[in-house]
Amino acid sequence: MIEFSHVSKKYGDRQILFDISGSFAPSITSLIIGASGTGKSVLLKCLVGLQKPDSGQVLFDGRNLVTADSETKRSIRQDIGMLFQGSALFDSKTVAENVGFPLEMMTRMGKSEKDDRINFCLKRVGLENAANKKPSELSGGMQKRVGIARAIVLNPKYLFCDEPNSGLDPQTSIKIDNLIREITDEYNTTTVVVTHDMNSVVGIGEHIIFLHEGHKMWEGNADTLLTAKEETLNEFVFASKMMRALRKVSVTS
């Protein structure tokens, strides 16, 4: 369980997050949605400890990441898997080396044990035959799957994904969404996905928090999304649907 309360963040004179509270449960795919520049990624960075909020607390199963000592922070971070927006793979390393990087940094596993874990994670994302390739030899969707394999290699309790479908075609995006949901179910992870992709929201939005201009404006799930009475949420949702419809028209005309 991840619980956060009264999280605020300012950059200079600009307030980015305003007193945001909420929680994310295990085995649930939780989404943080909203337009670009509304504070989604800043909230994510505060949750994982990449940035320190100006106020508020972030609890990982009761452990406060914001005020924790260095040993407790390290323990929490060992439980966190992170899929970055651009995959953030090392170009000079092979796929296997990229996946194994957290094992090198955070564990004392022997080579055989590391290799077994790397192979297991690559097989789980369907890339067991790509271990010796470089990221430049892979498609965007395959790179995302390598990123997921690396994110789960430490068998994390908490999985964070920042715009996992950015730059992907719709079919590949669905595959990535399904993979994230399957891993959440299989490993009982507390999964948090930052996205503005409405296909993802409708497809895997078991729990959704909507941000608007740094404020938490709505909370619900995919079933209640389209009937919500929040005006700013409706503007976001239906604008996104309209854009998809316009793209379909432009393709067929």
Number of domains: 1
Helix and strand sequence? EEEHEEHEHHHEHEHEEHH
CATH homologous superfamily (4th level) name: P-loop containing nucleotide triphosphate hydrolases
The level-1 CATH class: Alpha Beta
Percent helix, as a range, is 40-55%
Structural class, from secondary structure content?
alpha/beta
Return Rg in Å: 19 Å
Tell me the CATH architecture. Answer: 3-Layer(aba) Sandwich
What are the low-pLDDT stretches, counting only 5+ consecutive residues below 50?
249-253
Beta-strand fraction estimate: 15-25%
Strand order of the largest sheet: 6-7-8-3-9-10
Q: Can you walk me through this structure?
A:
With 253 residues, this protein is of the alpha/beta class. The chain has one domain: P-loop containing nucleotide triphosphate hydrolases (Rossmann fold, 3-Layer(aba) Sandwich). Helix content is 43%, strand content 24%. It has 9 helices and 10 strands. A hairpin with a 2-residue loop joins strand 4 and strand 5 (63-64). Helix 3 crosses helix 4 (111-124) and helix 6 (170-187) runs parallel beside helix 7 (198-204). The model is unreliable at 249-253 (pLDDT under 50).
Q: What order do the helices and strands come in, and which of them pair?
A:
Elements: E1 2-11, E2 14-24, E3 29-33, H1 40-48, E4 55-60, E5 63-64, H2 70-78, E6 80-83, H3 95-106, H4 111-124, H5 140-152, E7 158-162, H6 170-187, E8 190-195, H7 198-204, E9 207-212, E10 215-220, H8 222-225, H9 231-252
Parallel strand pairs: 3-8, 3-9, 6-7, 7-8
Antiparallel strand pairs: 1-2, 1-4, 4-5, 9-10
Helix pairs in contact: 3-4, 3-5, 4-5, 5-6, 6-7
